[in-house]
Amino acid sequence: MRLILRNLGFYLLAFWASITLNFVLPRFMPGDPVSRMFAQAQGTMQPDQIAQLRKLFGLDHRPLWEQYLNYIKSVFTGDLGISITRFPTPVSDVIGQQIGWTLLLGGVALLIAAVLGNLLGIVAAWRRGGVLDSAFPPLLIFVGSFPYFWLAMGALYLFGVSLGWFPLRHAYDVGLTPGFNGAFISNVATHLVLPALTIVLVSIGGWMLGMRNTMIATAAEDYITMAEAKGLSPSRIMFRYAARNALLPSVTNFGMALGFVVGGALLTEVVFAYPGIGYQLLMAVQGLDYPLMQGIFLTITAAVLLANFLVDLVYVRLDPRVRVR
Amino acid sequence: MAPSIASRRLRTALRAVTATAAAALVLSACTGGSGAAGAGDTSGNQLLTIPREDLATFTRNFNPLSPQAAPMTLQAIYEPLVVHSMSNAKDTPWLATKWEQAKDAKSLTFTLREGVKWSDGQPLTADDVVYTFQLQKKVLGGFDYLDQVTAVDAHTVKFSFNKPFSPAFYEIGGHYILPKHIWSKVKDPATFTNPNPVATGPYTQVEKFQSQSYDLRKNPDYWQPAKQQIAGIQMQAFSGNDSANLAFTGGEVDWTQTFIPNIEKSFVAKDKKHNHYWFPATGAMINWQLNTTKAPFNDVAVRKALSMAIDRDQITKVAMNGYAEPADCTGLGRTYDTWRDTSLASSCTWTKYNTDAAAKALDAAGYKESGGKRLLKNGKPFTLDISVGSASSDWISVANIIKQDLAKVGIIATVKTPDWSAVSASYNTGTFDTGIVWSNNGATPYEYFRGVMSTKMLVPVGKQATENYHRFGDKKADKLIDAFAAATDEKTQREQMNGLQELYNEDAPVVPLFTGPEWGAYTDARFTGWPSEQNPYATLGNRNGSTILVLTSLKPVKG
């Protein structure tokens, strides 16, 4: 318990540091939102509109420290202000609308990649020199080192355009009404296949290699030989003795990855026109939308810290050494 | 040490997993694509589908005061008094049937159409118009010349100005009108998202609003029901040109204004009978702006010589894919053909490509060449920077062609491509060297000339400019521009405009390059009645003022 409390203190400190960075960084970027919007419109906006938009957005001209105090307050009250690139929609609405799809896509892809990758790693290490061990890691690393954009486009053209197996875009068919029914859920699932599959393809290699390497080190430990000598069943040795101990680094990685899921998968969203936070963040950065940028960064920060905290908790359960210290 | 039992069990498990995965694939293959909305539907009730490549998701915001109002807010939902089309320079009476400009150009009177109703059944009156402009001034400001708006009677509105200003007609006439009975009850109109708009347009009923699509259905009280021939509009969200173009070339959406590379092959060739495009040059004049606060760009002879050194035909052909029109020495874009002084345009030479003449002109102005390099008057090499935002790949090629052409007369140019925000910041404050810049594009050339030569818009280096970044002003231009704004008859206006073109030819305030095209492509497999070169009643853009003309002209294909 004391351990958890001590960690909590550290997390608070980290949280403060990162929300302060969130505040400072966007303000170092050149220009202001209105002149960016004007430059992007390239002649389709009248010069008078610049003054009008400045008035409408009510851009903040208070001293920085005052803005900062206000920002800290808004972080705790959850009032993140009004988005500029989506004026006048509140930031919380913009994020709320898309966070679900982001979590669905990122979560499903991460879960499949991590579980499958770890299983493959375990088996490959256990049967060293086997087909799985010699063929899979190079193959997966090869696939994983393709530029993601290219891979996703390739999958889209092959399975979407040429073969027509999967839909080309969006999270569900246009015109369908969202609801908890079989038809809608299966529609969402089919739309999820290609985006998730491509993410899994590029990330699974890392999981497999990591697991395989720690597993090999663990399999050489004396207690494994001891377990074999006792005549325990091989599957019990593999999963309960070797894999359980080799799993720790993977759990850490999983926690990190889980936190970053919230940031969205920009390239996937661009190729498959999938709604999500990644593209929104790009738009916010391009339009110098401070409130939205802050909101998204804050969500990511909170998610990463939360995921790490959860991993710490799981560690206490998984690794008895942590409990003793 | 190979644990055979475990591996066998695992293998069975893996096999089970692959089997389910395969089954899932087959299942999803059956359902996938079946719901493709409306593609190929010719029941007569099909929706006109339009993609937005720049919005990955929609937000339910139909507030026309917001610059980020949902697409079609100003095209299908709210309507203006008069619709101006850039493609044929015509004004179509819309919510107003008549208008009259006072002789002194200090007031303007509109007569509203009888029988126009808001989509909640209430009638449109002069009070709505008055209220709209009051609200606009309160929330957004602007309209500094507007002194007073008064309702003369239920269907007549008078706008009084504090100075003679005839271009007001386009600004006021093209402005959307809001219902007073709704907006006067809104607490904060600036941050109101207006989820269910009440308006006079043909398609006001928002249905099935989702993060990546929504439908707009017929306004039951529309004032010209005969023109509501299509059942409705469906907007779809895409996160970039690629995904939007994939949907368009696949025939899943009807009408796009996204740029499509190699459109003949990638789109038209797929279905020659139905797939069409039209890129009229109705965009703004794109200029090469030279910062006239810096030497040697303050020398008109240099500006003209630089202009002669560049090959506009190559720029439009190579950098703009042949879809732009090269400029002449009047500086007027193709939209203003009716205002052009054609005898002037054919007689002057400083916008015609001639490397030898350019070199001679530079020699004569005192910028001598030595060893293949041109020198400034102080003996330093003649070099310049051309800045363009990194996102505009077409304009970057324009800058590169200019760079090559300048090398032929011994001038060393460097193309700089930082982010647009950095570029526009240097334009605003006047710290740039030269740049490829858009210009004002109004209904008349008034805004263009005001933006390139008036001293009124001139601000010193270091202060924020919103136009005239190159900081050139000529008092003679002010007089002509004011006289144009004060004139109400075409003859006087034309005289001033001719004077402005002559002055432009003398001063060469900027180096005009080309008129930009407006992209637009469609398939007429499901809808007919599109604007074209033969029938240019509107452009093929779906985000501008004349879009409403297209929406009220299209007919669905039946059976």
From TrEMBL, chain A:
Q: Which UniProt keywords apply?
A: Cell membrane, Membrane, Transmembrane, Transmembrane helix, Transport
* Chain ranges passing through the membrane: 7-25, 99-126, 138-168, 188-209, 246-272, 292-316
Q: Where in the cell is it found?
A: Cell membrane
Please indicate which superkingdom the organism of origin belongs to: Bacteria
Q: What is its main location?
A: membrane
The cross-references to SUPFAM superfamilies, in alphabetical order and at most eight, read: MetI-like (SSF161098)
**InterPro entries linked:** BPD_transp_1_N, MetI-like, MetI-like_sf
Domain (ABC transmembrane type-1) spans 99-315
Q: How does it sit in the membrane?
A: Multi-pass membrane protein
Instruction: Tell me which CDD domains the record gives.
Output: TM_PBP2
Q: Which organism is it from?
A: Streptomyces cynarae
Protein name in UniProt? ABC transporter permease
Name the protein family: Belongs to the binding-protein-dependent transport system permease family.
What does the organism's lineage look like at the top?
A: Bacteria, Bacillati, Actinomycetota, Actinomycetes, Kitasatosporales
From TrEMBL, chain B:
CDD domains assigned: PBP2_TmCBP_oligosaccharides_like
Q: Which UniProt keywords apply?
A: Signal
What Pfam families does the record point to?
SBP_bac_5
Localization recorded for this chain is:
Cell membrane
Q: What is its main location?
A: membrane
- Residues annotated as signal peptide: 1-39
- Topology with respect to the bilayer: Lipid-anchor
**Domain Solute-binding protein family residue range list:** 92-451
Q: Which family is annotated?
A: Belongs to the bacterial solute-binding protein 5 family.
Name under which the protein is recorded: ABC transporter substrate-binding protein
The record lists the organism as: Streptomyces cynarae
Upper classification of the source organism reads: Bacteria, Bacillati, Actinomycetota, Actinomycetes, Kitasatosporales
